[in-house]
Write a structure and sequence with these properties.
By secondary structure, the protein is α/β, with parallel strands linked by helices. 52% of the residues lie in helices and 9% in strands. The chain has 25 helices and 30 strands. The strands form 4 sheets. It has a 21-stranded mixed beta sheet, with no helix packed on it. Strands 28-27-29-30 form a 4-stranded antiparallel beta sheet. A 3-stranded antiparallel beta sheet has the order 24-25-26, with no helix packed on it. Helix 7 packs parallel to helix 8, helix 16 runs parallel beside helix 17 and helix 18 packs parallel to helix 19. The longest helix has 187 residues. The radius of gyration is 49 Å and the shape is elongated. The protein starts with 17 loop residues before the first helix and ends with a strand.
């Protein structure tokens, strides 16, 4: 970690105080992770990927990277999701001259200054990702085009604030782009795409998701300028009419190497566009046609015939696609791996026609059934037993979604359960009463890899289904929302399952029979970690009988979830970036374990050093005592010699005295000799005993050391023998496995030859193969059992030997400890006497030193008080300066916020202007289409009327009409001819169409004018008739009778 700057004296600059002030503010933020910053050992290297540690990455981490000696040689820097990184941290990395890849996704605190600082010298930068960097404005993105001209990959997704002129500057400067992501950039227009097509001819991947202003014009220019384009995403939810079949025509003709196309939501794309696209793009592997409502079976047939290498296709909500379209896909796309047919209402089991099968039957019998991995038939309500039997032919299937299919049967599910082994995701949501415990049991009985299951709103699911699901060891997510048959007993069966790595997500919303007992079984039964936490991340309890107190009681058992309660959810919801948090905590545990191990190793080393020091001290003490005893013996011998000489002198002087005194002196001398011998003999014997015990102790220690060395050597040799024996067994098993594989391959070849020759030989070969397999399995089982028995016997023998050795060592240790304790007690008594003498001396020294220390402390306290006063004055000055800087910084932030609001208002005005233009253009286009439709309808009406011919009947002397197509004849004038006659206007007002004809006036009137003119008098009795009938159709003048007014 970089050292914090100490401010004292005069202030150098304002920028020196900003990092410390911001750090003081950020320390108040609560952090539930074990680290406040990225560990320094992870900040070294040339390729730094800190995406997992971005939750705790700060500017201080970047400062540590900048202080590293090899910081200028960094090639890759990934800071995706680092929300605490600011411009200060990026400015410290301004010397990265060799940087080639930079990822700053969702770092919303970065502004133009930080981006300019890190890209100023990074002229070799080839990959740049700035997705979600909302703090960077148009000028900042313009810096990319100025400094990063060698870019190959650029991601600007979700940056809605980028203006069109910034895109122009980037596209004009970065001419080597191969991959570009500008999804959700709603201000991109055809003009910017035109510049991109003119400058970036090597472009291969382009993401234009939700770029609603791009139309066929921009895509046509793009296809002409970028012929190597292989992936393009045109998904949109607004203005779908701007992408039509014309764009597909241009893309298919110019970009013949297209591999992936996403047309989600392009409603004007029809069969014609798909025929053009599939006719030219033969390398197409992935296509998304979701919500393209004009696509029919014809378009799917063109894809099946033209795109032979297709691997995945999405047909979401294509209501016009039926069994015929699926049959065409199965016949042409032999490499198909993923099929999303959600919402295909006309998809059924299919039928067996004379020319072949249709629907899912054709898909199950096709060549793509060997490679199919993902199937989604959500909402296909016509699927039943035959469909499930056809799906059972997909042996490599991994994902199956049959939600909202209410005709599923147990027989079809049994076929799937017997066939599949690799399914990891299964959805049977909202299938109604057809989903029962029997169906779930037969479906999941062999699904060992099942990880995700959705049984929501299946009312008949109960305890048996949970018991069957508890056998799926890989289960991680289970959705039981709305399953009213789930009870506490069902949860008990589920909690008894041994899930690895553990159940992550459990949804029990609207399970009204689940209570606190089920919650306790969940917390106690599901897999728990070493620290007592359960494996669940998500637990939904909305609409259950679980009390709030029980939920709060297990809150500490789910460290990666938060308690959430609102109108739509109640329970535990996973924290953001759960995997990253788990990795950080796991690293913390490893670091703590390493520190504990290191501390234990150091303590053992220190204990060994202390024991050696004690042993040296004891040896030295014993040597001193032996030397003192030896010198004492010599002194006593010398004393005896002097005494004898003196006695000889006394004897010579005492001979003169009387014999009585001599006798008394001899007796007294004898008594003195006896006393001296009684005092000297015990000391000598003790010294000899101590020396002898020392010699015996050293011999025993050497013997024990030699025994431990020999025991350790025997353990090593035994482990080597066991390892060699295990390797030999593994080698034998591997040899048998290879032999089995070789025999199997040879048998397959022989069987193929037999099939070609004759059918009866095939039957004989199959029988022989079954017998051989049975014998091989029996041999393998016998080998496994014998190996287990040998291993058990070996473990028993080794365990008994270890027990015997431990018993012998324990006995020897007890005997040695008794001898050492006796010697230790003697030494302790002597040391205590010496310590008491030393303590008296130390007390005297302490009394004298206390007087000296008292005067020294008084002087130091006075100096410290002076320093504290001076430091307090300096801190007050620094606080005033920080407050001034923070006030200025606050004013700058307020100004930036006001500027941003004004910019947003300006962008909103531009958006409204664009919307007005689009609305006007759409109205004009709608009017033009209406006019063309009316003209076309009139033309059709004229053509229909021309088929009627007016003829004259000589017998009746009346005209009649004849239809040339149908041969029909009629006296009344056909309605199509009446509709072609000109509509009369009112003779009075000349403003409205006439509705009534007057026989006496011989004129046409509208209803209002007729009532006004013929209100009274003679005109009220005029005869009239209606021009149109009740439905607004024209009447025949010659057939309608006249009516007389009242």
């Amino acid at each position: 970690m970089p050292k914090k700057k100490k401010y004292g004296g005069k202030l150098k600059s304002v920028n020196d105080l900003i990092p410390s002030a911001l750090a003081a503010l950020e320390k108040t933020i609560r952090n539930d992770l074990p680290y406040e910053n990225v560990p320094s050992e992870l900040l070294c290297g040339v390729k730094l990927d800190l995406s997992q540690w971005s939750l705790v990455a700060t500017d201080d981490c970047l400062g540590v990277i900048a202080q590293n000696s090899i910081s200028t040689e960094i090639v890759v820097l990934n800071l995706s999701g680092a929300e605490r990184i600011t411009d200060v941290g990026l400015q410290s990395l301004s010397d990265l001259q060799h940087l080639q890849s930079l990822h700053l996704d969702n770092a919303y605190r970065i502004s133009n200054d930080g981006l300019a600082a890190i890209t100023k010298r990074s002229h070799k930068l080839k990959r740049l990702s700035l997705s979600g960097c909302m703090g960077i404005s148009g000028a900042g993105f313009g810096i990319i085009g100025q400094n990063c001209r060698e870019l190959v990959y650029l991601s600007l997704a979700a940056n809605r604030q980028i203006a069109p002129w910034a895109f122009l500057k980037i596209f004009e400067s970065c001419k080597r782009l191969q991959s570009l992501d500008i999804s959700f950039c709603s201000m991109v227009t055809d003009q910017e795409i035109k510049v991109l097509a003119e400058t970036s001819s090597d472009l291969r991947q382009l993401n234009l998701r939700e770029c609603k202003l791009i139309s066929d014009v921009g895509l046509s220019l793009l296809s002409q300028g970028c012929p190597d384009l292989s992936e393009i995403n045109l998904r949109r939810s607004d203005m779908p009419f701007r992408v039509t079949d014309v764009a597909l025509l241009q893309l298919g003709q110019a970009c013949q190497s297209l591999v992936s196309v996403n047309l989600h939501g392009c409603e004007l794309v029809s069969d014609t566009g798909l025929s053009w696209l599939s006719g030219w793009s033969k390398e197409l592997r992935h296509i998304d046609l979701s919500n393209c409502t004009k696509v029919t079976n014809s378009g799917i047939r063109h894809i099946g015939e033209g795109c032979k290498k297709l691997k995945s296709i999405v047909l979401l909500n294509l209501r016009r696609v039926s069994d015929v379209g699926v049959r065409c896909l199965a016949a042409g796309c032999h490499h198909l791996e993923a099929l999303n047919g959600s919402g295909l209402a006309m998809l059924s089991d299919g039928v067996d026609r004379s020319f072949g099968l249709e629907g899912l039957q054709a898909l199950g019998k096709s060549k793509c059934s060997r490679k199919m991995k993902h199937i989604n038939f959500h909402g296909c309500t016509l699927l039943s037993t035959l469909s499930l039997k056809s799906i059972a032919n997909f042996h490599e299937l991994q994902t199956l979604d049959l939600s909202c299919c209410n005709k599923l049967t147990t027989g079809g599910a049994r076929c799937i359960g017997k066939t599949y082994r690799k399914i990891s995701s299964l959805s049977l949501a909202s299938c109604g009463d057809c989903i029962s415990d029997a169906l779930v049991e037969v479906l999941v009985m062999n699904l060992e890899l099942l990880a995700t299951t959705n049984l929501s709103f299946c009312q008949k699911v109960s305890e048996k289904s949970m018991k069957a699901l508890s056998t799926c060891e890989q289960l991680q997510s289970l959705d039981l929302t709305g399953c009213t048959g789930i009870t506490d007993q069902s949860i008990l069966h589920l909690s008894e399952g041994n899930f690895s790595p553990g159940l992550r997500h459990l949804f029990l919303a609207q399970c009204c029979k689940v209570g606190d007992t089920a919650l306790s079984w969940i917390t106690e039964g599901l897999k728990q970690t070493l620290d007592g936490h359960i494996s669940l991340y998500t637990l939904s309890l909305k609409g259950t009988r679980v009390s709030s107190a029980a939920v709060r009681g297990i809150r500490d058992r789910l460290p990666y979830s938060i308690l959430k309660s609102n109108a739509s959810f109640h329970g535990f919801w996973p924290l953001a970036r759960t995997k990253d948090r788990k990795e950080i905590n796991f690293y913390h545990k490893i670091a703590c374990s390493a520190a504990i191990i290191q501390a234990r190793v150091r303590s053992r080393r220190e204990k060994g050093t202390l024991m050696r020091a004690k042993e040296r001290h004891c040896k030295k003490r014993v040597a001193v005592l032996i030397g003192a005893l030896f010198r004492g013996g010599k002194a006593r011998l010398r004393y005896k010699e002097l005494k004898r000489a003196k006695k000889a002198l006394l004897v010579n002087s005492l001979r003169i005295q009387c014999s009585f005194r001599c006798r008394i002196a001899r007796k007294r001398l004898n008594r003195q000799r006896e006393k001296r011998w009684l005092t000297v003999a015990p000391l000598a014997s003790k010294a000899i005993q101590k020396r002898w015990r020392g010699i015996i102790g050293r011999r025993r220690a050497n013997q024990k050391r030699e025994e431990r060395r020999q025991h350790h050597q025997r353990q090593i040799e035994a482990s080597i023998r066991i390892q060699s024996w295990c390797r030999m067994l593994r080698a034998k098993k591997l040899k048998l496995l290879l032999l089995c594989r070789w025999l199997t391959s040879e048998l397959n070849r022989f069987r193929s030859a037999i099939i070609i020759q004759c059918a009866w030989r095939v039957c004989q070969g199959m029988k022989a193969l079954k017998v051989f397999k049975a014998e091989f399995l029996e041999d393998q089982e016998l080998q496994r059992l014998s190996a287990l028995r040998i291993e058990g016997a070996l473990r028993t023998i080794m365990f008994r030997k270890c027990i015997q050795l431990r018993v012998a060592r324990t006995r020897k240790r007890l005997e040695s400890s008794l001898i050492i304790q006796q010697w230790y007690r003697d030494q302790t008594q002597r040391i205590a006497e010496q310590v008491m003498a030393d303590a008296r001396m130390v007390e005297a020294r302490i009394r004298s030193s206390e007087l000296i220390q008292r005067s020294v402390r008084q002087r130091l306290a006075y100096l410290k008080l002076v320093a504290l006063r001076q430091r307090r004055e300096e801190m007050l000055a620094i606080r005033e300066a920080k407050a001034t800087i923070l006030c200025g910084w606050g004013r700058v932030c307020a100004a930036k916020i006001r500027m941003r609001m004004r910019r947003e208002e300006f962008d909103e005005e531009i958006k409204r202007a664009w919307q007005l233009k689009f609305w006007a253009s759409s109205k004009i286009a709608a009017g033009w289409r209406g006019k063309m439709g009316r003209d076309r309808a009139n033309a059709c009406m004229v053509m229909k009327a021309q088929r009627w011919k007016a003829l004259w009947s000589e017998s009746e002397q009346l005209p009649f009409f004849y239809n040339q197509d149908t041969g029909e004849t009629r006296w009344e004038k056909p309605q199509c001819l009446l509709d072609l006659e000109p509509k009369p206007m009112c003779s009075n007002c000349s403003e409205y169409l006439a509705e009534i004809e007057c026989a006496d006036c011989e004129e046409f009137f509208c209803t209002k004018c007729f009532d006004f003119i013929h209100y009274g008098g003679k005109r009220a009795r005029h005869s009239y008739r209606m021009v149109y009938d009740f439905y607004g159709r024209r009447r025949d003048y010659d057939q309608e009778p006249w009516e007389t007014g009242n």
